[in-house]
Design brief:
Structural class of chain B: mainly alpha
CATH topology of chain B: Arp2/3 complex 21 kDa subunit ARPC3
Number of helices of chain A: 5
Distance between the termini of chain A: 57 Å
Largest interface: A-B, 44 and 45 residues
Low-confidence stretches of chain B: none
Shape of chain A: globular
CATH topology of the largest domain in chain A: Thrombin, subunit H
Mean pLDDT of chain A: 82
Structural class of chain A: alpha+beta
Helix content of chain A: 25-40%
Oligomer: heterodimer
Low-confidence stretches of chain A: none
Largest sheet of chain A: 6 strands, antiparallel, barrel
Mean pLDDT of chain B: 85
Strand order of the largest sheet of chain A: 1-2-5-4-3-12
CATH architecture of the largest domain in chain A: Beta Barrel
Order of helices and strands of chain A: HHHHEEEEEEEEEEEEH
Shape of chain B: globular
CATH class of the largest domain in chain A: Mainly Beta
Number of domains of chain B: 1
Radius of gyration of chain B: 15 Å
Chain lengths: 277, 161
Amino acid sequence: MQRLLQIFVIFKEYVILTLLIAISLILLFNNDTPQIRAIRSYTVGFVGLMQDMLSLVPNVIELKRENEVLRALNVNLTDEVSRLREARLENLRLRGMLEMKPHNEYKVLPAEVVGKSLHLLRNTLTINAGESDGVRADMPIISDEGLVGKIIVVSGHYAVVQMVINKDFRSSAKVQRSRVDGILTWDGGDVLHLRNVAKKQDVKTGDVVTTSEYSNIFPADIKIGVVSNVTEQTGTLFKDIDIIPSVDFASLEEVFIVTALPDTERTSVERRAAVGK
Amino acid sequence: MGQQIKYLFITALLILIQTQAMRLLSLEGMTPDILTIWVVYIAIRHGHPTGTIWGFIIGLAFDLVTGNFIGLSALTKTICGFIAGYFYNENKEVIILRSYRFIVIVLSVSFIQNVVYFLIFTQGTNIGMTRAIFEFGLVTTLYTAIISLIPMFIFSRKTSR
C-alpha cells in the first residue's frame, strides 16, 4: 500500500491525467444514456433560467431594427395572406373534385429564444418552452422565415433546439419547382447542402427548397432556403447543391414549435421493413 | 480554498462570455476560445495536476452549459491543462505570463487541443480530416492566440506597477 502511494506521488500528474481522460471518454461514449439525458435536462433548465434572466436586459437598437423589419414584413404578409386565401379555396375545390386527402394542418406554439450557442459546428438554441407546455423531443421548430431545427433536449420549462446549421442535423428536403428530393445537411459555412441528388435531376440556381413529405419529423412544404449553386463534379453520381438558408439564425428571437410528434406507426413499419421482418 | 472559489467564479463568468458574447466576434463561424486561455493561465500558475484538474472541470462545465457532446470539451481541456503544465516554472510564472511566451504557449496548446477536438467532433460528417485540422482547428487556434494578447497585456501592466 505504502509502495502504491509512493508510485502515485511520483506519477501523480500521469495518474490524474489518465483518470480524467478515462472519465471524459466514459461520458463521451454514454451521451445517449438516460442518466446523461437527465443531467442534460437539468442543466438545460438551469442554463435556460439564467439566459432568460439575462434576456430581460433590452437591446434598444435591436428592437428598433426589428420593428422596422416587422412593419415591412407585415405589409408583404397581408398581401400574401389574401392571395393564399384565394389559392386555398381553389385548392380545396380541386382536391374535392379529385377526392384527395387534405394535408395535415399542424398546431404551433410560440416561444422566445433565451439562449444561443452559435459556435463551430453544433449550433443550438435554448427556448423558453418545455415539458409543461407540451413540448417533446423531436418536435420541429420553425420561424416566419422557414425551418429552424428540431427539439433535442427538454426540461420542465425550457428546451434545446438542434438548428439546421448543426452538423448532426439531417432532413429530407425537396426542390419546390421540380419536386426533386434529397437529404439536407450542413458541414459548416454559410450554406446548407442537398445531398443524394442524381446528376440527371433538374435543379437550378434560384430554386426554392422545402421540407418534403418523406420526413417523419418535419411537416412538408416548410421553406428551407434557395439554391445558390449547383455543380457537377467528376467521379460522383450526384450533384453538389448549395442552399442559402431562408432563416437568419443570428438574429432569431422568436420561434414556433410545431406540436406534432413523429407518426409512431410509420416509424415502426419503416423500422420493421429495414430489418426485413 | 478562497482561490478555488475565485477560480470557480471566474470560470462561470468566462463560460457566460464564451457562450453569450463571443458570437459577436465570430469570423466565418469561428470564435476564439477564451476558456483555453484560462486553462493555460491556471496551468502556468499552478503546474500539472492543478492545470489538468481545472481543465477537466472547465471543459465539463462548458459541455453541460452548451448541451453539446458531454465529455468532449472535458477531454480536450484536460489535455490542454496537462500540456500547459509543462511550461510551469515556479520562479518564472510572472515572466511567462507577461511576455510573448504566453502567446506561444496558448498557440501550441490550443492547436493540439483543437486537433483532438475537431478529429472527434467531425466524425460521421463529410468534413475531411485535413479540413477539420487546418480550416477549423488552425483558424480557432490563431484567433485564440490573438485574443490571448489581451490577458497578456493586462497581466504585464498589472505586474509592472
